[in-house]
Design a protein that fits this description.
single chain, alpha+beta, about 260 residues
Length: about 260
């Protein structure tokens, strides 16, 4: 006769293993740690069998990405006398990746993960998501999607800070390139459509943009703040084609109100 409890075996293979508090109905409630059948791990709060409250979910099944493998090698070779700040700075320079990418790998681990709020099993509220490619999002969530205010740190050092809707950049936001340039203005469903393209030298274009984030306004304006002048024109084949003479203009870029601490 088979000595195994078939119901228990089925529960483990489907639901995984759980260690923690349960309510009077034997549902996961309170603090606990769950080891899922696919290898993923969650540690945090539960309510009536679902993740609810604060928690940390590790996507073990996805495995480490290439960026995290490189950071892992750097950690193994780290000089123990180095401070965290020095190590993070030197590693980000050596690997040519954003400082925040290294910081998140050290603080939250080398595997993809989510650390933050849950409501009835879904990511809702404030949270940080570290993806397999090493990129990091920190901000508001709704129904498992980036929604509200948040900052997205790209592996190469670019950063977007601003509004999101259903997982996409949507509303006012600033995309800062690692070279110092910026897109600052309105985004719709992930596309930058209207605002300012600020160059690293301070000169900026103001107008509308197409679906590939390229200037497309027939009456765009290029501003030269250091000279207090501007010029109306259009971008054609990635070249500026002026349509009038240079005029006196004391305008400066709009306030980057979307940036968060």
């Amino acid at each position: 006769e088979n000595q195994y409890d078939r119901k228990r075996v089925k529960a483990v293979t489907v639901l995984g293993i759980y260690a923690g508090r349960r309510d009077e109905f034997s549902q996961r409630s309170g603090t606990g740690k769950a080891f899922y059948a696919n290898g993923d791990v969650y540690e945090g709060d539960f309510l009536e069998g679902k993740k609810h409250g604060q928690g940390h979910y590790t996507f073990v099944k996805q495995g480490k990405g290439e960026t995290d493998k490189l950071i892992e090698k750097a950690v193994a070779a780290r000089d123990k006398s180095q401070s965290d700040d020095v190590f993070i700075l030197e590693t980000s320079k050596a690997l040519k990746i954003g400082r925040s990418i290294v910081e998140s790998a050290i603080e939250y681990g080398l595997l993809p993960c989510y650390h933050g709020d849950y409501v009835r099993g879904q990511r809702v509220g404030q949270g940080l998501m570290k993806a397999k490619d090493g990129s990091v999002y920190k901000g508001d969530w709704l129904n498992n999607k980036r929604h509200g205010q948040g900052m997205f740190y790209y592996v190469n050092g670019d950063v977007y800070s601003g509004e999101w809707a259903e997982g996409l950049k949507h509303g006012f936001g600033t995309y800062r390139f690692v070279n110092g340039g910026e897109y600052r203005g309105e985004w719709v469903k992930g596309n930058f459509i209207d605002g300012q393209w600020i160059m690293s030298d301070g000169i900026y274009y103001e107008g509308k943009f197409d679906k590939k984030n390229r200037p497309c306004d027939t009456n765009g304006v290029v501003h030269f703040p250091h000279l207090n002048v501007s010029q109306v024109g259009v971008y054609k084949m990635d070249r500026w084609a002026p349509q009038n003479e240079i005029a006196i203009n004391n305008e400066v870029p709009i306030n980057e109100k979307a940036w968060a601490v």
